[in-house]
Design goal:
single chain, alpha/beta, five-stranded parallel beta sheet, 14 helices
Length: 329
């Protein structure tokens, strides 16, 4: 649903709180630093004098370029003296920089009048009510990814790779996807039988990217098409903003594709969703229990050709991990 006035005001209060917090921290650190390094006060006075003399020189008719170059050189020298003084006293050179949660918007929520990615994700969390997802991600992340649940003696479809060796390759692809996401983006198709770790892996990726301030929405395929139905047939204003986020978020995760009730509407909307996100250079992860040939049979050729040509495939094999974990407890 769209953010209500109350929800928007609550978000802005959070940003105001962050700015106030940052101001208090900088104020405290400034007092601490100047108490430890009193000579910084003299440096500040020199900086002020240079700035005033530069303005005076310009108004007195001195060449602007020359005055600016001289001032810049002196200020750089003072900056290096300042850094050296701070380091010698045991302070990092960025000690007086505000500890922003989001350096991009400096905890204002906006960049050049547009909502920052951090604001969009905060809005997504409210609109989509992702609290349950966030709880899951606290447990399902790369730190918790256990290769030992994949057997060295399990092979599938005549492959020479064991489930364990295959999982190592899959994990490497997933971590590379995260590491290169800001520069390259990309799309993933996660294949495998039920319980082989596809959802866990997509959650690992989601957690890692959310930690980087990248906007992520997770849907099961049934949930996704329910939003499309509400927006298309019922013109439900409550899902309008969520519908827009589906196309605008940095990463859309569609879990368990193929488990939804399939008809011409779902096929058409799936193509529209995937195609539109490709056109906008937005990334998508699809996980499915279907094999490649089953995807071709279930969905239109337009969809499968789009997916096969624009998505990197990660396949996981093995016994049902969830059952193994229950047994091992």
């Amino acid at each position: 649903m769209a953010l209500s006035n109350e929800q928007y005001d609550a978000l802005m209060r959070e940003y105001n709180h962050k700015q106030s917090r940052n101001s208090r921290i900088v104020s405290y650190r400034t007092k601490e630093l100047y108490s430890a390094v009193p000579s910084l006060t003299q440096l500040d006075e020199e900086v002020s004098k240079i700035s005033i003399s530069s303005i005076t020189a310009i108004f007195s008719g001195k060449d602007i370029a020359t005055a600016s170059a001289e001032s810049k050189k002196k200020l750089e020298e003072l900056k290096m003296r300042r850094i050296n003084l701070m380091k010698s006293a045991g302070f990092p050179e960025d000690y007086l920089e505000p500890p922003y949660d989001c350096p991009d918007c400096k905890d204002t929520g906006y960049i050049n009048g547009e909502r920052c990615h951090c604001f969009k994700q905060a809005a997504i969390n409210i609109v989509y009510k992702q609290s349950n997802i966030n709880n899951i991600l606290s447990k399902e992340n790369f730190d918790a990814f256990d290769l030992d649940v994949y057997d060295n003696d399990y092979f599938e479809d005549g492959s020479e790779l064991s489930a364990r060796a295959n999982a190592e390759i899959a994990l490497e692809k997933a971590t590379n996807f995260v590491q290169n996401f800001r520069e390259k983006g990309g799309n993933l198709l996660l294949l495998g039988r039920t319980g082989c770790g596809k959802t866990f892996m997509s959650n690992c990726i989601a957690k890692a990217l959310l930690d980087q301030g990248i906007s992520v929405i997770y849907f099961t395929s049934s949930e996704l098409f329910r939003v499309f139905e509400e927006q298309t047939f019922k013109k439900n204003a409550n899902v309008a903003e969520l519908h827009d986020h589906i196309f605008d978020c940095d990463l859309l995760i569609i879990d368990d594709l193929g488990t939804e009730f399939q008809n011409s509407f779902t096929t058409a909307r799936l193509f529209q969703c995937l195609n539109e996100r490709l056109l906008r250079n937005k990334s998508t992860i699809i996980s499915t229990n279907l094999k490649l040939e089953e995807l071709r049979d279930t969905y239109s050729e337009r969809i499968t050709s789009r997916v096969f040509s624009n998505y990197e495939v990660i396949k996981l094999i093995g016994n049902d991990i969830r059952i193994k974990k229950v047994i091992s407890k």
